[in-house]
Every structure is written in C-alpha cells, then in structure tokens.
Design goal:
Layout: H1 3-13, E1 24-25, E2 30-32, E3 38-47, H2 60-72, E4 87-96, E5 105-112, E6 123-130, E7 136-143, E8 145-146, E9 149-152, E10 157-160, E11 165-174, E12 187-192, H3 197-211, E13 216-220, E14 223-227, H4 228-231, H5 236-243, E15 247-248, E16 255-259, E17 264-267, E18 272-273, E19 276-289, E20 292-294, E21 305-307, E22 310-325, E23 329-330, H6 331-340, H7 345-357, E24 361-362, E25 364-367
Parallel strand pairs: 16-25
Antiparallel strand pairs: 1-15, 2-12, 3-4, 3-6, 4-5, 5-11, 6-7, 7-11, 8-11, 9-10, 12-14, 13-14, 16-17, 18-23, 18-24, 19-22, 20-21
C-alpha cells in the first residue's frame, strides 16, 4: 500500500487528527439568493430509429404529433394511416442555468414515453422547451447518445443499460433570457446547503474580517445576510466575486449513513459512543425433506405409499461474545475493532442499529 493510500485510510478511520483538512470556500458551502437555474420540459419526436420505435396501436399520441409536424411542413396527411417503426414520442428535459444568455447552448435529456425499445441512433426533431410560466426558453434538436444497448432474436432478447433514455450534449439553444437584474440588488442572502449555526457564524466572521467592518449578519442556521450597499463595491456581482473564495472551516452534525443493499457504512469523525456492552451471534435453522416411496411386492395386493422423512437441525455460527465498549470511544475505533474480528458489513449494520436503539450512539443514524 502506498503512503498516500495509507494516510487516506487512516484519515477515513479517524486514527489521524484532522490536521490535513483544508478550509472550504464559501461558494462551495452556500447558494446565493437569486443565483439559480430553471427547469425546462418539452414534448417531441425522435426519428431515424432502426425499427425500435413506438407501436402506433399502443402509442396513438406518436401518430398525432407526427401528423401535426408533417402538416406544419406542408405535407397533407389527412385520412392517412401511419404504421412506421422508426419514430418515437419523447419528453425532453433540461436545466436553464443562471445568467444564461440567448444563443448559448445547454445539454438536454431525452426519454421515451411510449413502447419504443431503443432510442439508439435516433435524431430529435426541433422541440421547443417550456418553463413553469409556459414560455419557450430554448429549442432542442440533435442526435441522441443513448446510454444502453439492446439485441433481439426470434426467441430471446437482451438489454444492457437503459436504451430508452439518452442525452444530446449542447443539444438546445437558448432563445429567451430570464429577466433578473442581479447588479441592482442592495443585499444578498447566502443560503447554507447544510444549515449549521457554527458554520453560519464563521461565514459571517470571515466576510466581516475581509471588509474590516460589519457587512454580514447571521440570521439563522441556514442564512447569512450580506449588505452589498454597505460593502461599498461597484455592484453585487463584484461583491460576490470578492467573498465567494474566502476560506471557512465548516462544522457538521455527527452522522452515520448506512446502505443496506450494498453494506456501505459512512461516518463522520465526530461520532461518539457511550459505554455499552455488545454481544452478537447467528442461528441457522436447517430443514430438509427426503420423502420415501414404499411399493408393494409384484403381484401382491396393496398400494404405493409415500412416507414423509424430514431432517431438522440448528447451527449456531460463532459471533461476538459479550464485549464492553468504554465511554468516549469513537465509532471509527469500534468499526476497526469489528473489522479485525471479521464481522461482515451487514452484521456490522445490525450492531450499529442496536447501539443506536440503546441510546449509546450519539449521532444522526440514516438508513438507506
């Protein structure tokens, strides 16, 4: 194991003091009031599929949008019956980033809504994207990059990934800008992504120290108000550019997160355990059925009888005996001890649940 990996492992287990921890920039801890994106959605048509599109009988809306598109292009299809297999109806979603200007491009995600088998190789026809106010802010079009593959034969079909969903990098062009004059703001609120009173107080102190006067004030655990007018900068943009890179040492609540599906355990360095005793073991019940068929002798009177025959047993696997954990022990030390004993991750999760239920685990316990 290299020295770098060894130090990283020791830091994760909490055996090294957080001397290597570096401060975090304010821009990585907060969201600035007014600096936000907007969700866009559109309903469009994908063409050019290799026989993997919607079945018109099961997706009549595909025929409707295709007829509407051809009518707009000057093709009269009134009364015609469509049965193509190379088109699919899709939803197109995207996020309009803050301060996006007309003419710039954004990525879009395309998802089938009918019974199409794959969007691989398809092309999205010009699709307007609307925001929550019903206005069109972007127009999407381009070749889809699907995230999976599928193959089908006479008697079998195999699918890898999700071929009915894909992306178009830079597939939408912005046509309308969001009306928001950021430079006219006289104050800006900083919203902490993880609310904490200590972190908010440190952000306030860092900003006031940078300006040499009280221009920031903590309102609550999740909000710090920054007075742009009192700061004396040319505009709110200049002020944000000055404070967003200030370093701050954040604080966080003690938290343990476990994923039962994968057996993953993630914990913070501040997690502590009170004095508690732990004992763990497993019982395995085993029942096997081996019925015996008894038949009469040849040419003898009688009937065939099935005689039940069962074997049952109980096996006790070796677990952890009664062990005492002293007060003030960190959870990383407990995990290291359980790992040394060869305890499986799932048994470890059960032990942590029991310690939390006993009131000895002083941290927020999250099970996913």
């Amino acid at each position: 194991m290299t020295l770098r990996r060894l130090l990283l492992t020791l830091c994760i287990l909490g055996w090294l003091a957080p001397a290597f921890a570096s401060p975090v920039r304010i821009k990585d801890l907060v969201d600035f009031d007014g600096v936000r994106g907007n969700d866009l959605i559109g309903y469009g048509l994908v063409v050019g599929l290799n026989g993997t599109g919607d079945g018109i009988r099961n997706a009549p809306f595909t025929e409707e949008i295709m007829s509407s598109l051809l009518e707009r292009l000057g093709v009269n299809v009134t009364g015609e019956q469509f049965r193509p297999k190379n088109v699919a109806a899709v939803f197109v979603t995207a996020e309009l980033p803050p301060f996006a200007r007309a003419g710039s491009t954004i990525d879009v995600t395309v998802s089938a809504i009918g019974d199409a088998k794959s969007l691989l190789g398809g092309t999205l026809v010009m699709t307007p994207l609307n925001a929550a106010d019903g206005q069109v802010y972007a127009v999407a079009q381009g070749t889809i990059i699907a995230g999976g593959a599928s193959a089908e034969g006479e008697g079998a079909r195999v699918v890898q990934g999700v071929p009915t969903s894909g992306v178009i990098p830079s597939g939408a062009r912005i046509e309308r800008e969001v009306d928001f004059d950021f430079s006219s703001l006289s104050e800006v609120r900083l919203a902490l992504r993880t609310p904490d009173f200590t972190t908010a107080a440190r952000i306030e102190a860092a900003i006031n120290e940078a300006y040499g006067r009280p221009v920031a004030r903590m309102l609550d655990a999740g909000t710090v108000r920054f007075d742009v007018a009192r700061a004396g900068d040319a505009s709110a943009a200049h002020a944000i550019g000055r404070i967003e890179n200030l370093p701050v040492d954040p604080q966080r609540r003690a938290r343990v997160v476990v994923d039962q599906r994968s057996g993953t355990i993630v914990m913070g360095e501040d997690v502590r355990i009170s004095r508690v005793a732990v004992s763990q073991g497993n019982l395995t019940l085993r029942i096997e059925e081996a019925p015996l068929v008894v038949q009469p002798d040849p040419f003898a009177a009688g009937e065939t009888v099935v005689v039940p025959r069962s074997e049952a047993g109980i096996e006790e696997q070796q677990g952890i005996g009664l062990a005492e954990v002293p007060a003030g022990t960190s959870l990383s030390e407990v995990i290291a001890g359980l790992n040394a004993l060869g305890v499986s991750p799932r048994d470890m999760i059960d032990i942590l649940k029991s310690i939390k239920a006993a009131g000895a685990l002083h941290a927020e316990f999250i099970v996913q």
